[in-house]
What does this fold into?
Amino acid sequence: SQTIHQWPATLVQPVGSPLSLECTVEGTSNPNLYWYRQAAGRGLQLLFYSVGIGQISSEVPQNLSASRPQDRQFILSSKKLLLSDSGFYLCAWRTGAPNPQYFGPGTRLTVT
Amino acid sequence: AQKVTQAQTEISVVEKEDVTLDCVYETRDTTYYLFWYKQPPSGELVFLIRRNSFDEQNEISGRYSWNFQKSTSSFNFTITASQVVDSAVYFCALRRSNFGNEKLTFGTGTRLTIIP
It folds into this structure.
């Protein structure tokens, strides 16, 4: 069966510091991968998605970037965090056009 | 443009009552997919159901049922005999069906609290 991992689970970082969040999927090949952000008390916003290694599509211009160095690994990064980057970051995967996206456990980021 | 509206921000019901969560969507596409997800306090989104736009048959899964009405652009979710474990935020979502379109448009969610 497929499993999706995210780490760290929680993170507190000062403004201006770098960020690296990692997501890995097990039990499937060539998945589509996604990064979402959920601000406190709000809905989900798609940040990036990837349909293959090295292929990244950005939905919203912002202080973040994403990379996919391996088939089942998706990384969210920032060179300098802003207060507005605080939120709950969710990674998701999908295979097959009609299939739903399946989400990981999330990373709660607080920028101080 | 696509849009999903969940007008009920918060709902509280007493345990064992039935509750319906509303979802209204907007799209110009003739084919699309609709989804419901549950977000318990732990934060992880749990997939509940997918519905294709060409399949208007209602679905029942245990205490959960879904009523899809294309004529009113609604995809409502009913929990029968609610339980405390049903307390969560529920999201309705919409995705276009054409290949290469990856964006899942979410509603703002409905926070459901089941009172013991």
Notes: Residues 63 and 105 of chain A are 23 Å apart (CA to CA). Chain A touches chain B through 24 residues (CB under 8 Å). Chain A has a mean pLDDT of 92.
